[in-house]
């Protein structure tokens, strides 16, 4: 049998998800951009990270480096 308190106080929100659903974009994969990307991954601030740069070769290299580092982080 439910108590009066249980009848009056009802949760109206869904339970919070334990997994963040955040996306982050880093524009520029130079030293500062990569430092931001590594910090974002290291602190688990986002579950999706996008890197943007005009230099395709540098972008591809840094992306592969982050993929390899993510195994360690």
TrEMBL record:
Return one Gene Ontology term, BP aspect. lactate metabolic process
Reactions this protein catalyses:
(S)-lactate + NAD(+) = pyruvate + NADH + H(+)
Q: Which InterPro entries match?
A: L-lactate/malate_DH (IPR001557), Lactate/malate_DH_N (IPR001236), NAD(P)-bd_dom_sf (IPR036291)
Please give the GO cellular component terms listed in this UniProt entry. cytoplasm
Q: Which UniProt keywords apply?
A: Cytoplasm, NAD
Give one Pfam hit by family name: Ldh_1_N
Gene Ontology MF terms in the entry? L-lactate dehydrogenase (NAD+) activity
Q: What does the record give as the function of this protein? A: Interconverts simultaneously and stereospecifically pyruvate and lactate with concomitant interconversion of NADH and NAD(+).
Outline the subunit composition.
Homotetramer. Interacts with PTEN upstream reading frame protein MP31; the interaction leads to inhibition of mitochondrial lactate dehydrogenase activity, preventing conversion of lactate to pyruvate in mitochondria.
**Protein's name in the database:** L-lactate dehydrogenase B chain
